[in-house]
Design goal:
single chain, 5-stranded parallel beta sheet
């Protein structure tokens, strides 16, 4: 890789901006790539206008995500940046030639893993993403990512402990533990996510951990008990993302999801009963092959009834290399749009209701940009005229209502 980029550095291409699309695993990998390229002689900048080179870490989980990756690629091409392209889009590019003048260099998924395998994170802010496991062996019928990422590959426990201790010593206040299938951590190395969390709680101090996303069928009783215990102790953030996809068992079976709605509800209720302030989110797919109106309504009513603080909604789109790609679609584009709109309206209500629950209450927040703090329960709060790394925040009201996640208004809580 170093040889590939020698020519760029000779042309004074030294300032690198990271543009990351998609999941938290991509963000974790970008932070490691930043360290690699810093060692290669690049200066990492936080404003793309200062950069000569863009590291574009792409996503292709849905058709829309793929389009968005191409959009950003073309955006930077037209503005004559040198581009280092990596991420889940790269398997689609094997037979494509972008440029004859060396403007674009592609780092394949395999090459990227080799570059970052033992690389430390280059922390840019007080919050970092740490990938602890790659790959997924569940192979849901619609999922492209599990085919691209391959089998489970867990990072050594001892290395993770040392890296977290290093980051704590650097002043990092939150580490987001990431994985394509986070709950599968350790299955290939004789460990488990439960064991890792207990070690982190014991051996790493002065920061908090956040779990990025957990598949419901990886949460056994021991892991659930551990998560609840460590959350009550303030070690794990009270924010859990549990992908749902559908609340119709018939559709879950067609998707190859390997759990039932009843099993999902049992875990969710256990979390809420033990951690009442927890912000629980999920992913939902509309218009999957075979989804009837009654299936959609089952999902709608489940989302309405359950104590979700937010959820993400995606229309189903066929992805290559998956079993669903070969099946005939049964839900029209227009029907998908209608169902998407209905769920987005419900989502806005759920988000507003959850946020209002914390007005005039105090939460712990870390500074993530300018004067915006992220609370332990995943609320964005604007606190004016304060720039402390970590803050006790009294949440006051809405500052800016956004269609995805609003920004709340808060003030420093000084006791009393």
């Amino acid at each position: 890789m170093a040889k590939k980029l020698d020519g760029q550095r000779k042309r004074r291409v030294n300032k690198l901006y990271l543009k990351t699309l998609g999941c938290k695993v991509n963000y974790a990998e970008s932070e490691k790539l930043a360290n690699f390229f810093k060692k290669e002689g690049y200066e990492i900048v936080e404003n793309e206008k200062e950069a000569d080179t863009i590291l574009l870490n792409t996503c292709a989980v849905t058709k829309e995500a793929e389009k968005n990756s191409y959009k950003w690629l073309n955006f930077y091409k037209k503005r004559n940046y040198q581009i280092i392209l990596t991420g889940c889009l790269t398997p689609f590019l094997k037979d494509q030639k972008f440029s004859s003048n060396g403007q674009i260099k592609i780092i394949s998924m395999e090459e990227k893993q080799r570059l970052i395998e033992k690389e430390e994170i280059l922390p840019i802010r007080r919050r970092v993403f740490l990938k602890i496991v790659d790959g997924c062996e569940q192979l849901c019928n619609y999922c492209l990512v599990s085919r691209i990422r391959g089998r489970i590959k867990s990072v050594c426990e001892d290395w993770l402990i040392k890296e977290c201790q290093r980051l704590s010593n650097l002043g990092i206040k939150e580490i987001v533990l990431c994985g394509i299938n986070l709950g599968s951590y350790g299955k290939d190395i004789g460990s488990s996510l439960k064991n890792l969390l207990l070690r982190l709680a014991k051996e790493v101090k002065n920061l908090r951990f956040r779990l990025s996303s957990l598949e419901i069928n990886t949460i056994d009783k021991e892991l659930l008990t551990t998560i609840i215990k460590l959350t009550k102790e303030g070690i794990i953030c009270p924010h859990f993302h549990l992908p749902l996809q559908s609340a119709a068992n018939r559709i879950l079976m067609k998707m190859g999801r390997n759990y039932t709605v009843e099993e999902y509800e049992q875990v969710l209720i256990s979390l809420i009963e033990n951690i009442p302030d927890a912000n629980i989110g999920c992913d939902v797919m509309v218009g999957y092959i075979g989804e009837e109106e009654e299936d959609f309504l089952a999902t709608y009513h489940f989302l309405e009834r359950m104590p979700f603080g937010y959820f993400h909604v995606f229309p189903f789109s066929k992805r290559p290399f998956t079993p669903a790609f070969k099946e005939e679609e049964t839900v029209s584009y227009q029907k998908k749009k209608e169902r998407l709109k209905i769920l987005l309206t419900l989502r806005a209500k759920k988000i507003e209701k959850y946020c209002q629950k914390f007005f005039n209450k105090v939460r712990s927040g870390i500074l993530i940009e300018d004067d915006i703090y992220l609370t332990d329960n995943y609320l964005n709060v604007k606190v004016k005229n304060v720039q402390k790394a970590m803050l006790a925040i009294k949440v006051l009201d809405f500052y800016k209502k956004d269609k995805n996640f609003p920004i709340l208004l808060g003030e420093e809580f000084k006791g009393g």
